[in-house]
Design goal:
Elements lengths: L39 H5 L5 E2 L10 E6 L6 E5 L2 E7 L8 E7 L4 E8 L5 E5 L4 E5 L3 E6 L5 E6 L3 E7 L2 E7 L3 E7 L6 E8 L1 E5 L10 E6 L3 E6 L5 E6 L14 E7 L3 E8 L2 E9 L2 E7 L8 E2 L4 E4 L8 E4 L6 E5 L4 E4 L4 E5 L7 E5 L5 E6 L2 E3 L2 E6 L6 E6 L5 E7 L8 E3 L2 E5 L5 E5 L2
Length: 438
Amino acid sequence: MVPAHDEGVAGVPIIDLDTSPPEVASEDGRRPAVPRAALLLALLALIMAGLGAAVPPAPGLTEVLVAGGTPAAAFELGANALYTAQYGLNNPNSESAVRRFDLTTGTEVWATALAQGVQNLMVSDAAGVLMARNDVAISFLDAATGKLLWSIRSVNTSAVTLGRSGVLFTTDEVTRTVVRLADARTGETIWVRPVDARIFFGPDVLWEQNPQRLVAVGVDGSVVVLDFASGREISRGALGGPLRPAYEPNVDGVLVGTVSDDRLVVRSSAAGRTSMAVYSLTPFAKLWERVAPPVGLPTDCGVVWCVASVAQGPAFLGGVDPATGVLRWTTSDLAFAARFGDRTIVGGDPQETPELTLRSQDDGRVLRRFGRSVRVGDLLLHADSSTPGRTWVQTVAPDGEIRTAGAVDVGAPFGCEQEGPYLACPTSDGPTKVWRVP
């Protein structure tokens, strides 16, 4: 554990506390609602392209903050706060200036310095802790005051997630991985246990603020399910091993994933045969297996799982029944898809800059075309091809219509984040900006 620093870095005082896009109608003329879809953040984060010429929209988007005059090394939105990390002036690789800004007033709340570079920020509002990390050093700050609470340095240790229950660490050793949950404010160990040298940690909700369980799959084929808060073993199983991790979807070996927090999926490929086996986690049991395409790691699309083909040739995506593995529909114009609403999904075609479409979960039919867009939380972002460095923001109105809220000076919307009513983006002229979206 490392004590708080006493001297500033990069001139930062230490806190001593001891033409908007056209509205898009559906193919039958209606405008279906577009509810929240958190899973699309990961899938659509790298998608951007231009639309046609824009015209000024009705007012609606309000700029609330310009955070500093230079690009941030990292930034993170919390509840009514923006956290940024700037490179140090003396040594950008080993110094960082970290700040918190209040989004209701647009003012800086605190600024502190860390004797480490910062590549990533993560905040837990429930724990009141901000985590700042790079490949070697991880520091934990009081989110309200900026005071350094504790830190660690290790080339073999990674912080997997930070939440209400604590921060989960993994330390890779030669033949095993040691898993430890620590108190986020003190660093004191809550529980620790070794598992076989891992090839997978899950489930896919592990990175939420309050995960309930942890799934570890080892190279020996062992599967162990632990209670996140206590480390207690909930269930255990075996896949047969040793397993050879594939790491890429189009090569021989094993890929492992989860859907929600209760299904484990194993895609195995060897000697020209590829299969997709599905297991329940509690109790651990094999449910079904399919060998006919598509087989792979699925995405929860509601009434179906969306499974993309990884074979050579045209794009191929199918809707698979989660209970039986039966293929319910296919489409050749989607490369990926994820759940969007109660009965809809959003998918993208296989272009380098994909077009997004809203579709029915039941049969895959197109309900609405979004154009080449980026989905960020509840928002659709369209880069304006006629004006480089400008992006149009669309929201979902209470009546279900998609409406243009305004434009932001952002050339690369894939770097944006949304939290509640706020949108934060790195801007064309450098500083991170935050807008309030109606």
